[in-house]
Amino acid sequence: MRLNRFFTERKNLRIGSSVKLPDTDIIHIRKVLRLKKGDRILVFNGEREYSAILTLVTKEVVLVKLEELLKETFEDSDKLRFTLFQGLLKAGKFDTIIEKTTELGVSSIIPVECDFSQTKVDVVERKLDRWNKLAMSAAKQSERIDVPVIENGIVFKELGAELKNYDRVYFFTIPRKKIPESLEVKSLTKIKANSKSKKIAFVVGPEGGFSPREHEWAKKWKLEFVHFDAPVLRAETAAIVITGLMHFIYSK
User: Fold this and answer.
1) What b/e readout covers 50-59, taking b as 16+ CB neighbours within 10 angstroms?
2) Which of 46, 149, 188, 193 lies 20 to 30 Å from 228, alpha-carbon distance?
3) Which domains does the chain have, with CATH numbers?
4) pLDDT grade, residue 63 (50/70/90)?
């Protein structure tokens, strides 16, 4: 039987530790799952996952004892990391992107205010806590040990300096007549992974895609222009498909 998984922010975990689960999980544990003392669960903290046994279940507190280390992730410089720079979308659509790209293994998501964004960057700060909780919930459901970070937003023109920290950066565009013909755009199917590239970023636009001046900025920053050999996708669908394809391309 699949065991229920719970997240703890506590970092100094070891076998035998007694861990207090978040108060926000108490009602779910008692009323929905109807777990009780002696039942077994899984506990993870973004670095390790343990099997655990419930030792105390009350209205005020839930305690578990860690029994066995099951999985562990390391800060490895050779580990592939995928960062999604996502153009801000209408309310609700960004939630979908966070949930689904977390399930697909994205490492971090950075909201970007673009010319065609209908949501501005100044609203991001008050949404970060909820967005990170959503990422944590998706990581729990998809059995990830690590949890992606939803970072504070930036405006598009600030991307140039930020993207210098990555080995490769893919800029996803939709070729249109308004976009300068001088821009070289490669089909997504033609991308070849480089084994030396470990920090990969992909930049996906909002509804309506990127503006002509954003394409010019991306050209100046020497980003790799790519597009789909497929019908035009919704912005939230594109982000999900791209995340999955990047993992496929780089895991070959």
Assistant:
1) bbbebeebee
2) 149
3) 5-72 (2.40.240.20), 81-250 (3.40.1280.10)
4) very high
Exposure string for 152-164, b = 16+ CB within 10 A, e = fewer? ebbebeebeebbe
Contact 41, 4 (CB under 8 A): yes
Report DSSP state, residue 116.
T
Place of tokens 């459901």: 141
Asked whether the beta carbons of 100 and 240 are under 8 A apart, the reply is yes
Given the structure tokens 């009602």, which residue do they identify? 27
96 within 8 A of 216, measured Cβ to Cβ: no
Q: Which amino acid is at 176?
A: R
**pLDDT at residue 116 is higher than 60:** yes
What is d(CA 148, CA 105) in angstroms, rounded to the nearest whole number? 8
The model's pTM: 0.80
